[in-house]
TrEMBL record:
Record text on subunit structure and interactions: Homodimer.
CC annotations in GO: extracellular region
Keyword NADP: no
Enzyme Commission numbers on file: 3.1.3.2
Reaction(s) this enzyme catalyzes, per UniProt: a phosphate monoester + H2O = an alcohol + phosphate
Keywords, alphabetical: Glycoprotein, Hydrolase, Secreted, Signal
Domain Calcineurin-like phosphoesterase: 305-520
Domain of life, per lineage: Eukaryota
Occurrences of domain Purple acid phosphatase N-terminal (ranges): 188-293
Signal peptide: 1-19
Sequence ranges assigned to domain Purple acid phosphatase Fn3-like in this UniProt record: 62-182
Protein name as it appears in the record: Purple acid phosphatase
Top EC class of this enzyme: hydrolase
Length: 629
């Protein structure tokens, strides 16, 4: 006999929130909300868990094997899920939930909970597939076998078989529980530069609170005596979230985040490190061994290679919802960079990281995806609208793009050398480069705290030692031929460059980078809407303008260009890709745009410039002089 149990929450409220997340058309909001084809939708937001019905069928079953993972200390493993349904339909789907048993405290079922129902599904799943994916004849046989890849996310897992599609889910069967051998293990290290040039920070995730274990890093020069550095521990709670779904159906306990500061590094030397936790009984839990190369001294004349991109998102290697429907290019970008490890030294991901949009489980998925990169080179991030924006939360844009996260997960999970990580602007010295990273989700206009920071970052750059001055932020505060920007008539984020272009010119910024628009575009040397040079592939002699680059094709759905001719646009690419800059010395820089699909170069230019060329007077950038002798 089929049993039904309607889970009741404030349905109108949640439906309204979900509608806002998908259909918002705020004129100051993320322009993707004005174009569904460009936007893409967080796949988990398509599942209306508040409409869930329980219809356990005695002849239906779902089993997952193996049920114990990570026996060789691996952090991911493939499993097989077998499905049997006596009344199959094309809308049947399979989802994995974690923890395997859920807390129903925020839900009010109409009748008592059946004790045999495990799990009680009151949270969004981590991911899902339709049951007929592997068996085209599923609707006739009711049999299916699916492959899922699970990562260690601290808690156990269970699968559910559903009918009714995503909008009217009905739970038909639940699986056995699956778990990792050590769910608390230290995992997914993320390197970042510290506030001093000779400092590297390591942040990682575990499920060890400070009253259970002491976190630290064991590290040192490769092949030499290792030392230990302590780590601080942070986390965040459900009440830290600003709204739904992060505070409701998307919430999941995030674990603990540990950051250690490795100091007094020798320039360009190779170091090895391991993450450690000393338990209260005196035993130790260790990660595997990792390595990194220490950063160069500011101004050091050596080969220095930088990767820049934005808007990657996350994808699933098992072909589940995210990979097929949301960020089709993120795995290509990630895998191409993994293959090329050893040929670059630092990465800048300039906003919109996992597009979790309030579904907290997706942050683990993202840190696992980028671990091969972030554990080996500094992985510097910027804040995007999908990390920060939420109404009445202090963000410059009053949109719900973060899904209620309001910046908290990004600020705690990824270290940046900012004075206040709630304000995600900071500067980085890397050899011959000075990077000034802006936070486009906070006001940057003249007179603001951020504007003062940006000017100070530019003004304090010693161009004799650091000739390559780079600005980067998430939204396009410069120039873009994006279709939506063209419709606004601005070819930029509204109010974008009106305050900043005089700073770019005064302090002779070489290149300004942006994400947010999911494509690639490069301008000529620009000043006040015009090209100040006819050169396109090689720039030499006096500095006279800034090159603006949109590099938001890291993986999320691509953004269309306008059909209007923009005379300042030199190269456009409606594809996924990233930029690599190579500084050979103080006078020679190579810029390359590479497609994520093959890693080949599709656009490039070089800059050859001497110190005197940066000092010399140019339009809008002349130092005052006196006739006195």
């Amino acid at each position: 006999m089929e049993m039904k149990l309607k889970l009741v929450i404030v349905s109108a409220f949640i439906s309204c929130v979900l509608s806002i997340l998908v259909e918002s058309n705020n004129v100051h909001g993320d322009f993707y909300t004005n174009n569904q084809e460009m936007m893409g939708v967080q796949p988990l937001s398509k599942i209306f868990m508040h409409e869930l019905e329980l219809g356990i069928h005695p002849e239906a079953s779902i089993t997952a094997i193996p049920n114990l993972l990570g026996l060789k200390k691996q952090s991911s493993e493939w499993i097989t899920v077998n499905v049997k349904h006596p009344n199959p339909t094309a809308n049947d789907w399979v989802a994995v939930f974690s923890p395997a048993t859920f807390n129903a405290s925020t839900y009010a079922p109409t009748i008592g909970n059946p004790k045999y129902l495990t799990p009680l599904l009151v949270s969004a799943p981590i991911k899902y597939k339709f049951a007929n994916e592997s068996n085209p004849d599923y609707v006739n046989t009711g049999l299916g076998s699916l492959k899922f890849r699970l990562i260690n996310q601290r808690y156990d897992f269970a699968f559910g078989l559903f009918s009714g599609g995503l909008a009217k889910p009905k739970l038909i069967a639940t699986s056995n529980k699956i778990s990792f051998a050590n769910p608390k293990a230290p995992l997914y290290p993320r390197l970042a530069l510290g506030k001093s040039w000779d400092e590297m920070t390591v942040t990682w995730t575990s499920d060890y609170d400070i009253n259970e274990a002491i976190p630290f890093v064991k590290w040192g020069l490769a092949g030499e005596t290792q030392t230990r550095s302590p780590a601080g521990t942070l986390t965040f709670t459900q009440t830290s979230m600003c709204g739904p779904p992060a505070r409701t159906v998307g919430w999941r306990e995030p674990g603990f985040f540990h950051t250690s500061f490795l100091k007094n590094l020798w320039p360009n030397q190779k170091y090895t490190y391991k993450l450690g936790h000393k338990l209260t009984d005196g035993t130790y839990v260790w990660s595997k061994r990792y390595s990194f190369t220490a950063p160069p001294y500011p101004g050091q004349n050596s080969l220095q290679r930088v990767i820049i991109f934005g808007d990657t998102g996350k994808a699933e290697r098992d072909g589940s919802n995210e990979y097929q429907n949301y960020q089709p290019g993120s795995l290509n970008t990630t895998d191409t960079l993994i293959k090329d490890l050893g040929n670059y030294d630092i990465v800048f991901h300039i906003g919109d990281l996992p597009y979790a949009n309030g579904f907290l489980s997706q942050w683990d998925q993202f840190t696992e995806m980028v671990e091969p990169i972030a554990s080996a080179v500094p992985y510097m991030v910027a804040s995007g609208n999908h990390e920060r924006d939420w109404p009445n939360s202090g963000s410059f844009y009053n949109t719900p793009d973060s899904g209620g996260e309001c910046g908290v997960p990004a600020e705690i999970m990824f270290y940046v050398p900012a004075e206040n990580r709630a304000n995600y602007w900071y500067s980085v010295d890397y050899g011959m480069f000075r990077f000034c990273i802006g936070d486009s989700e906070h006001d940057w206009r003249e007179g603001t705290e951020q504007y003062q920071f940006i000017e100070k970052c530019f003004a304090t750059t010693d161009r004799q030692k650091q000739p390559w001055l780079i600005f980067a932020t998430h939204r396009v505060l410069g120039y873009s031929s994006n279709e939506w920007y063209a419709q606004q008539g601005s070819f930029e984020e509204p109010m974008g460059r009106s305050s900043l272009q005089k700073l770019w010119q005064k302090y002779r910024v070489d290149i300004a980078y942006y994400g947010h628009v999911h494509s690639y575009e490069r301008t000529c040397l620009m000043y006040e809407n015009i090209c100040v040079s006819s050169a396109t592939s090689h720039f030499s002699g006096l500095w006279n303008g800034t090159i603006h680059v949109v590099v938001g094709g890291g993986g999320s759905h691509l953004s269309k260009f306008t059909s209007l001719k923009t005379t300042w646009s030199i190269y456009k690419d409606y594809d996924f890709g990233f930029v690599k800059m190579t500084a050979f010395n103080h006078t020679s820089l190579l810029f390359e745009y590479k497609k994520s699909s093959d890693g080949n170069v599709y656009d490039s230019f070089t800059i050859t410039r001497e110190y005197m060329d940066v000092l010399a007077c140019t339009i809008g950038s002349c130092a005052p002089i006196t006739l006195a002798t």
